[in-house]
Amino acid sequence: MKVDVVPAHWYLGVEYQSSGDDMDKGVCIYIKDQHTTSKNYPFRYMREINSVDMRSAGGTKAAIRLMKNLKADSDAKRNIRLLSSYDIASLIWHLNPDQLLLEESRELRVMAHLEKELDIIISNESRLFSLKTPDNTRLIIDKKEKIEDLKILIQELKGLNKMISEENLSSPSQEALSVLMETTVPIY
User: Fold this and answer.
1) What residue ranges carry the coiled-coil annotation (predicted)?
2) What is the Rg, in whole angstroms, of the alpha carbon atoms belonging to the chain?
């Protein structure tokens, strides 16, 4: 069995020492290529993701899982090199949780709204370059190539949305996103 070992140590900074709250504990991970460490706050990160997910009734985490699966299953995954799962989750954390609201039997609406929200976010490059991770430790998009990765992933989502909407068309003139918005998934 192969095991990955990641050299790291706790970072118990001023915030943690003041609060004593585990959410303020950081982790420093050794980056071998650069002979440096990278600090992040995994507990704070998850608290922030969970908070937004609660506001969307589970829609935020569903959107994160969908996009991570699209990346993993993509025929173009060799071309998506720089955008990590952490980056994907961080970008979705910035989306409007009210738009990602997960309603019973209306799950396809999350996919439609996810496409719309990602189109909005990708259209404003200066904003995209200013977005930080939920733990506020780094920029999500720090290289132009990550935008290209994101565009590929959005195209994968659009392809999936189109395929699902075609299966549920009631009229040939309907647009894919309106089909997803109107379709209800039967509950058995």
Assistant:
1) 140-167
2) 19
